[in-house]
Every structure is written in structure tokens, then in C-alpha cells.
Amino acid sequence: MKFEWKGVMPAVTTKFTNEDTLDLDLFQVNIKAQLEAGVHGIVLGGTLGEASTLTEAEKRTLTQETVKMVNGKVPVLINIAEQSTKGAIAAAHHAEEDGASGLMMLPPMRYKASDEETVEYFKAVATNTSLPIMVYNNPVDYKIEVTQAMFDELLKCDNIEAVKESTRDISNVTRIKNNFGDRLKIMCGVDTLALESLLMGADGWIAGLVCAFPAETVAIYELQKAGRIQEAIEIYRWFLPLLELDINPKLVQNIKLAEVATGIGSETVRAPRLRLSGKEREEVLKIINDGVKSRPQLPDYKNL
Q1: Tens of pLDDT along 154-170?
Q2: What CATH number is attached to the domain comprising 182?
């Protein structure tokens, strides 16, 4: 399936059983909820997907099973977060074999590559796959920034098509539009800047709290796209305390706890992560419960 870089694409959590194996039955419950809400794609194996704890076999199983679950309704994208260029190329080949429609790519992991090394890393993968690529630009968490000058070089590769913009600098949306027009599609990667980014011209939203609140997330996107900005703002204001759970070192535990509250997930995480406990858990639960109790009534956003 051809990837269209637009709309809401959940960076889904990976579901585990109490025996620490993939819980594909519960995973399907969540994917079904996302599809019913009208999401525009599925992103696997990102930070929220606990990618660093997944084996190669588990990543391949997730890709293959998700492709079956969505059954052509939306594209499926798999994240590549590898330590070597060789490993990243192999992961891209596996993604193609397993039916993925596109790739989200982080810079090299662990090693703080130079600008030149980072560019060559992305280009090596791009020239070894036919899949479209979205560069995940998150210098806050991953310590490497993909600059505008680096994108000048990267965009010589036709299949590098988008950026997951997570620099936390909202003005970068305008810089990218000024420098690259529609050649580089922009997907906001920070929940707490999503509506602002969309209003400034971002094409879509790689979302986190959508894992627990899919309808509200898609409604914000569709409303702003239809020009019903005030309605989008009202939902976004309700959503913000929940969205702030995404910009936290324990975003995985936070969002999985929210999935429990909305009936489409479990708290189970993979070690070394542990479930939230004590005062921290109480504080997060209060935010979640307050949000659930005050969920807004949504307009018919699917038919705008």
C-alpha cells in the first residue's frame, strides 16, 4: 500500500502477556479501536512500542500480524532503531518482506554520529529499500539533530519523504515549509504540540495518547482540517493534561495505564520497565480518571 503522509498515525504500544510474550489478542483489540476511530496509519516498534526490548523475531511477528489485522484499510509503518548501518538495512529488508508500507527511522543508536555519518546512514538504507522513509528527528531524546542542511542532502533520495518533527521547536514547521515546500512531509511527533503544528502546516500527527483515546485524537485532526478550529481547540484543551503524560520518561507506563482505563490495553510492560506504583501511580491515575470522567461529546468528525 502506498503511504500517504497525512492524518493521525498511532505509535501503538506492544501488548505483553504475564509470561512476557506478545499478547496478540489484546493487541488486536487496540488495533480494532484505532481503525474504528478512523486513524490513517499504524506505527509499530517505536518508543511507545518498547522497541529496544523487542527481539527481531517479535518485530517481524508484529509487522506480519498487524498487516493481516488492518487488511489493507491503512498503511503499516515499522520503526528502525539500529546500532549499525548493516543492521538497519537488514531491518528494512525484513520490513518489505513482512508487508510494511513504510519506515520510520531513527539516527544510529548509542553512537553519537556526526552530521556526515548520520546522513550516510540514512542514505544507505534509502538506497537499499523501495519503501518510503520518515526520518524521526528527536534530538531531545536521541541527542542527534537532523538539521535543515542535512535534509538538503537526504532529499536527494527520492524515498526519503517525511520527517517526524520532534525537536519541540514549533517554528521548525515553518522552516521546513519555507525550505522544502511539499517535498518533505511533516508529521508532528510531540503530543503537546500537535494542534499547533497542524495549524502551522504539518501534514499529520504520530500520536501517543491516541493509544487510549483514538476518537478524540482523530476528531482534533479532522476538525482542524475542516476549518472548525474552535471545536478542535476545545477538545485539545480537555486533552492537554492527558497529552502531557506522553512527554515524560515513563510515557510507556503512563499510556498503558490510560489504555486500561479506556478498556483497550493492559499495564504489562517488559523489564527493566516496571508498572507505576505508589504516589506516582496515584498522580497519573488522577489525571487519567479526571479525563475519562470529562470526555467531551464529539461531533460527527468522520463526515466533515
Answers
A1: 999 999 999 999 999 99
A2: 3.20.20.70
